[in-house]
Amino acid sequence: MIERLALKDVYERLNAIPAVVLLGARQVGKTTLAKAIATRIPSIYVDLESAQGRAMLSEVRLFVQSQTQKLIILDEVQRMPGIFEELRGIIDERRAGGRPNGQFLLLGSASRELLRQSGESLAGRVSYLELSPISIREV
Fold first, then answer.
1. The whole model's pTM is what?
2. Average pLDDT for 69-88
3. How far is C-alpha 74 from the geometric centre of its chain's CA atoms?
């Protein structure tokens, strides 16, 4: 895997804020970057593009409660548009329980609707990072 320059930025943001939204066009490496992070820190990866992944999150609170000390990586988060409202309360509960930062890494396309939904629901709890295609410096 090519070491992405954004990797350091993602770690810094996870250490400073509860949720990081990694945005970008298809095939820029969001999933690859997230899986690299998952090999370095305790994480669980859920692909919301699959029916199995969406089924795992049918009861979001129960799922998150079973993963108390892990970073939860949700890929293709735009596939569950109502999840941001649910995450707001979950983030606040986990903060009160002693896990203030590094709770969620959310991956999705940079659609205007996704940004609007997450911005309204997760204000003050989320940081956005746009991943661009591989640069010359990374190659």
1. 0.86
2. 87
3. 5
